[in-house]
Amino acid sequence: MRVLLDVTSAAKPRPTGIANYARALVGALLALRTPHEWRTGTRPGRWRTRRHARDLRGSDGRPPRLLLGPGYAFGAGRPDLLHALGVRLPRHGRYAKVVTIHDLGTIDRPDLTPADWSRRRARRIAESVARADGVVTPSAFTRGRLLAAFPDLDPRRVAVVPHGVDAARFAPPAPAAAAATARALGLARPFVLHVSAYAPRKNQALLVRAFARSGLAAEGDLVFCGPRGAGAEALAAVARDAGVAPAVRFLGYLPLEQVPLLLGAARCFVVPSRYEGFGLPLLEALACGTPALAARASCLPEVGGDAALWFDPDDEEGLAALLAGLWPDAARRAALGRAGRAQAAGFTWERTAMAAALRRAAR
């Protein structure tokens, strides 16, 4: 079988989220060593950034093809199956079509994203679901929401394939290396860490206010790692209003190789999100043995299981109490770290490679 992977979502200079998923999945599929031929392609809309995906070569050794024309007729190279790793499937094309639907946030919670983006994204999801022979979701939560949003969708066409974690990269780092990374980033005090882009659905303002309520600002910092911009400025304003601005740090986007070291240096990791499709940063923190606290919302319990401490995404006081209790308790942090590594061991990109799901959709 000849499979074409649309990796357009990975054509970004600073990959996050779906881009990291696409990168990891391409590598895992190639490592399967199946008789199938894997090719990659990008749509012309990312022409200016296409070079950032050139390393995502297929089993034929070629960089991503440029997908042009109706059904990508001038670039697809006559595949048997197209898998869109983002959200967009073409209307035409004489091949089976599979799409990964990462989340239904713009349908379920349009209030958490800009209105224009919500409308466009929701329309694109609906179009791709209608065109797909098979749909992949990263969590049972997302599958359930998809079937609720599209009641005519045959459940047999929707497979849950959880994301994985790169165990070679995301593992407990050497303490000296983690401490050196923290010092190089100007972090002189113990810290609570959050890694993500800034968005209302991430609920980061609650984390800032809970940190302030916990009293930890007297001896530690709250560190945000994510692209700078309006979201970071808004959180800085929340920190000023809460009286903890000097203890709230914004590192900006960090190269992927630095993130495990920063996780290893953190006293704990917090995911306060109201809505996620999977929650890969939580899984990566668990794999690094970093004690994790997470909102009991959307798909996050599927990822964290019994290895994280849970709080309601509207419970500022509850999160503050968890932070204050965990901060001085080294034994409890160590136990959570061990539980996190055991939990993360069940999520691998090899399992995510989903060759069986792709073959099933192609029949």
Can you offer a commentary on this structure?
Helix content is 38%, strand content 15%. It is α/β, with parallel strands linked by helices. It has 2 domains: 2-164 and 349-362, Rossmann fold; 175-344, Glycogen Phosphorylase B (Rossmann fold). The strands form 2 sheets. The chain has a 7-stranded parallel beta sheet with strand order 3-2-1-4-5-6-7, with helices on both faces. A 6-stranded parallel beta sheet has the order 10-9-8-11-12-13, sandwiched between helices. Strand 9 (221-225), helix 7 and strand 10 (248-250) form a beta-alpha-beta unit. Helix 6 packs across helix 11 (316-326). It is globular and about 65 Å long.
Topology at a glance:
Blueprint: E1 2-6, H1 17-31, E2 37-42, E3 65-66, E4 81-84, E5 96-100, H2 105-108, H3 115-131, E6 134-137, H4 140-149, E7 158-160, H5 175-184, E8 191-195, H6 204-214, E9 221-225, H7 230-242, E10 248-250, H8 259-265, E11 268-271, H9 280-287, E12 292-295, H10 300-304, E13 309-311, H11 316-326, H12 330-344, H13 349-352, H14 355-362
Parallel strand pairs: 1-2, 1-4, 2-3, 4-5, 5-6, 6-7, 8-9, 8-11, 9-10, 11-12, 12-13
At a glance:
This protein has helices at about 15-30, 105-110, 115-130, 140-150, 175-185, 205-215, 230-240, 260-265, 280-285, 300-305, 315-325, 330-345, 350, 355-360; strands at about 1-5, 35-40, 65, 80-85, 95-100, 135, 160, 190-195, 220-225, 250, 270, 290-295, 310. The protein has about 375 residues and is an alpha/beta fold. The longest helix is centred in the middle third of the chain and has 17 residues, at about 115-130.
